[in-house]
Amino acid sequence: MNKILSSMKNIAVVGFSPDKSKDSNKVGKYLIDQGFNVYPIYPKDGQIYGKSIYKSLSDVNEPIDTVVMFRKGEFATTLIDEVISVGAINFWLQLGIINDDAKEKAAKNGINFVQNACIMVEHKKENNGKFK
C-alpha cells in the first residue's frame, strides 16, 4: 500500500459519481483536495468538481499512474486490461471490492495491487490524518 500511496500523482477514479452522497464522490473529492490530478471515469458526460468526465481510461490523453475502482468486483477482470494498456502502475479496488483474477493478472504485469481497502482512509493514515 505504501508503495502506491507514495508513487501516485495522476489518478483515474473509475465509477466517480457526481452524486455527493456516494463514497466515490467523497473519495474523489478528497483526492482532488489533496492536490492529485484526478480523472473521473463515469458513463455520463459533464464535469465533477471542475474535472472533465471520461467514459473510459483510454479516453484520458494524460498519463495515469493509479486507477481506483468503485465498481462491482467482476468489473476488475476487464478493467485490468485497460489498466495495463494505459500503462498505470497501480490498481486499487476500494473497500468491499475483491477480484483475485485481477490481482493475479496485475502481479504478472508488474502492477501494484490493493483490494478491499479505502484509498482515502489509507492516505489519511499515511499522512497522520492531515490534508497536504
From TrEMBL:
Residue stretches making up the CoA-binding domain: 4-97
SUPFAM superfamilies reported in the protein's UniProt record: NAD(P)-binding Rossmann-fold domains
Bilayer-spanning residue ranges: none
InterPro entries, per the entry: CoA-bd (IPR003781), NAD(P)-bd_dom_sf (IPR036291)
Name of the featured protein: CoA-binding domain protein
Organism: Campylobacter iguaniorum
Upper classification of the organism: Bacteria, Pseudomonadati, Campylobacterota, Epsilonproteobacteria, Campylobacterales
